[in-house]
């Protein structure tokens, strides 16, 4: 399988605005921010979707959540609050098939997050 965009960012083959890195994950600002603060936390291991997370990957998934909170504290918006989202497959709105945690902050975020009318898939 060819590398995704995010593996190429990890390998520094394409540029990104990297804000945090450790041995397990990388975080960088989203190129199309949906809030004043919008960055992605990705594992260095290429896992295509949440459905592909093995039992052995549970620590990686937890690490992404920890990194999101760590960065929120470091950047000073943890107390005000933020939202984490991981989209999965088409209905979830996933477009890059390397799991990533969206972290959105910097303003009160609306809920529910979607604007489409509810419709059944019939
Ligand atoms: P998703 O739709 O959940 O798969 O999210 C993919 C996210 O990646 C979107 O919010 C895009 O704006 C973001 N994105 C795509 N290409 C880049 C890039 N080169 N650098 C940073 N973010 C990107």
Describe this structure in words.
With 122 residues, the protein is of the alpha+beta class. The chain has a single domain, classed as HIT family, subunit A (2-Layer Sandwich), CATH 3.30.428.10. 23% of the residues lie in helices and 20% in strands. It is built from three helices and five strands. It has helices at residues 5-10, 58-75, 89-92, and strands at residues 18-21, 25-29, 37-43, 82-85, 101-105. The chain has a five-stranded antiparallel sheet, with helices on one face. A hairpin with a 3-residue loop joins strand 1 and strand 2. The longest helix has 18 residues, at 58-75. The relative contact order is 0.20. The model has no long low-confidence stretch (mean pLDDT 95). It binds adenosine monophosphate. Adenosine monophosphate (AMP) binds next to loops.
Index terms:
five-stranded antiparallel beta sheet; 5 strands; binds adenosine monophosphate; 23% helix; HIT family, subunit A; alpha+beta
Topology-level CATH name? HIT family, subunit A
Bound molecules: adenosine monophosphate
Quaternary assembly: single chain
The coarse silhouette is globular
Q: Strand order across the biggest sheet?
A: 1-2-3-5-4
Number of strands: 5
Indicate the CATH architecture: 2-Layer Sandwich
Mean pLDDT: 95
Name the CATH superfamily classification. HIT-like
Cα end-to-end separation: 33 Å
Strand proportion, as a percent range, falls in 15-25%
The CATH class assignment is Alpha Beta
Which structural class matches the secondary elements?
A: alpha+beta
Rg over C-alpha atoms, rounded to the nearest angstrom: 15 Å
Largest sheet: 5 strands, antiparallel
């Amino acid at each position: 399988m060819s590398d995704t965009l995010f593996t190429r960012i990890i390998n520094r083959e394409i540029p990104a605005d990297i804000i945090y890195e450790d041995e397990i994950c990388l975080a960088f600002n989203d190129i199309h921010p949906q809030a004043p603060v919008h960055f992605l936390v990705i594992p260095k291991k290429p896992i295509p979707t949440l459905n592909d997370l093995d039992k052995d990957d549970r620590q990686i998934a937890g690490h992404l959540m920890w990194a999101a909170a760590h960065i929120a504290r470091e950047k000073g918006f943890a107390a005000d609050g933020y939202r984490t989202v991981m989209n999965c497959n088409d209905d979830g709105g996933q477009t890059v098939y390397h799991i990533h945690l969206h972290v959105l902050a910097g303003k009160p975020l609306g809920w529910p997050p979607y604007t489409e009318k509810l419709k059944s898939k019939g």
